[in-house]
C-alpha cells in the first residue's frame, strides 16, 4: 500500500524526470535509419548492397554521445539511438574503402565499418562499430524458383480447377436436371458458396437470428486488429521520423492504440460464447458424450487448417517473389524463412508455445491460443453436463485462471500490460517477456474464455425460459455505460507508461490479473444486451446487414492482412515517413484489400473445406446426426451457428447432403 502511494505521487510529478530533447537537439543525433539508392546500386556489375546495424561510441568525452546515451536510456518511449541502422551500397558509397575488389565485396564487414565510421566521424565526431550485417544483396543474385514454389503453384491450379469443375457440375447437372448430386463436388460450386456468403443470418430459428450481432462485432474487432498491426509493421521497418513514434506516447488519444491489444481478446469471448450456446442447442436433440470431444476438435482442425495452410504456404513461397527492395528481405523474406522452419507448429496450433526468435506469421498466436482454449472449453462442456456441475466448473476455472495470471506476473516479474516500447516493435516483441509468456499463451487467456462460456450458458438459459427483459428498460443507461467504461479501462493502461519509476509489484499483479476480465465482462454485457434487445443504439450498429458477409470472411481476412502490410512496407525504397494521415491511408488500404481478397479465398477454399467436412461427417454417421453442423460454427472467426444450415435448407441443399 505504501509503495502504491509513493508510485501515485511519482505519477503526478512525472514529466520532470524524463530526459527530453527539443527538435533542434534531436536532429543533432545521427539519423536512426537511412537507405542508399537500391536499384541503381545493383545495376552496376558486381554491385553489392548491405543492410547492417552499427553501434555508436566515443573514445573520448563527447557531449553528443552523452546526449544520445541519456536519451536512449529511456527505453520505454525512445528508440535506442546508440545503434543506427543502414542500407549501404558498398560498391558505390564505400568505394574508397575497398582495397581488394573480390575479397571485400565477398566479405564487406571491414569495408562497411571503415566506411560508416568515416562518414559518421566526419559529421558527428563520434565513431561507429559494425554490430552485424542482416544481409547483402548482389547484382549477380538471382531469385530461384524452387521445388516448394512449384508444388504450391500446382496446388493453386488444382484448387482453381476444382472450383471450375464444381461450378459447372452444379450448373449443368444439378440445376438443370434437378438432381441432388455429389456433395463433394458441389462443395466447390462457387455459386452455391456465394449464396451462402450473402445469405441473411439464421433465417428460421429466431434464437439463431439473434446471434447476428457477432458479424458486426467480429468485423469491427478485426478493424481494430488491422489498425494496431498497421502501426506495428511500419515501426518494425525503417522510419525516417522515429520522433513521430516517440512523441506519440505523450498523446492521450494514442494511448488507446497502445493498450488497444485488450480488444483482441474479444475474439476469445465470442468464440467461447458461440461454443457454449451451440453446444446446448445441439444437446436438445442429441445426447452429449465424451466421444464428442475428439470429434469436435477434429472438425475444428479440418475447418480452420486448409485456408491457414494455404496462406502459410503462400507466405513461404510466392510472397518472396512478389517484390524487391532494400527492406524486402527484412520484412518479407525473413518471414518466409521462419515459416519454412516452423510451419508444423502452426498446423498443430502450438506456435504460441514453440518458437525461437524467428517469427512466422506472428499474429496467428491468436489461432493457436483459441484452439487450445477450445479443446479445454469443449471438454468442460461435455464433461460437466448438469447445470450445477457447469456452474461450479466455470467458477473454479475462472478462479484458477486469475491465480495463473497473478502467479505468472509475480513469479516471472512481468509487466502488467505489454509495454509497447519502440525497440520491441523492431523485433515484433520477440524479446518481450510479457508478450511471450503472458499475452500469447493459451492458459493465460483462460479468464476471458471462461467469461464467454458463462455468457453463452446464460444466453441459452434466459432464452429457454423466455426471460422478460422489458422490465429492465429503465436501466438502459447502465448498458450504454459499457462502451465508455471499456474505453476507460483501455486508457487506464496508460498508468504503466509513466516515466519515473516502474510500477510496484502489487499494482502490476493486480492489474494484470483483473484488467482483461473486467474489460471482457463489459463485452459480454454488450453481447447479452444486444441479444435480448435491451437497447437499439449499439444493436443497430453491430447488427447492420452489411456486416454479414464481412463477418463470414473475417477469418480469411485475418490471415491475409499482414501479407499486404508487409508487402507495402517491404517494397519501400526509402524509410517510411510516418504521419497520422499516412497510417489511416494504409489502414484503409489494408481493410479494403484484405476483405476483398478474403472473398475469393473464402469462396474457393474455406467454404468448400467446410462443406466437405460436413459431407464426410454426415455420410460416415447416422444421417440424423447433425453434430458437424453444430460445431461448425463454434468459432468466433467463422460463421455463427445456424446460418449455414439455414442457408442450405433454403436452397434445398441440406436435404441433398443428407441423402
Ligand atoms: C533547444 O534547446 C537548446 C538547449 O537547451 C536551446 O539552446 C535551443 O534554443 C532550443 N531550441 C528551440 C527551438 O527551442
Ligand atoms: C542500445 O544498443 C546497444 C548496442 O546494441 C546496447 O549495448 C545498449 O545497451 C542499448 N541501450 C539500451 C538503453 O538498451
Ligand atoms: C583474398 O582471399 C583469399 C582467399 O581467402 C586470400 O588467399 C587472399 O590473400 C585475400 N587477399 C587479400 C588482399 O586479402
Ligand atoms: C573511426 O574513424 C576515426 C577517424 O578516422 C579513427 O580515429 C577511428 O579509429 C575509427 N574507428 C573505428 C572503429 O574504425
From TrEMBL:
InterPro entries linked: O2_lipid_transport_reg (IPR052728)
Domain of life: Eukaryota
Keywords from the named record: Membrane, Signal, Transmembrane, Transmembrane helix
Residues annotated as transmembrane: 150-169, 220-239, 259-281, 391-411, 446-465, 477-497, 517-534, 546-564, 584-605
Signal peptide start and end residues: 1-16
PANTHER family: ACYLTRANSFERASE 3 DOMAIN-CONTAINING PROTEIN-RELATED (PTHR11161:SF22), O-ACYLTRANSFERASE (PTHR11161)
Protein name: Acyltransferase 3 domain-containing protein
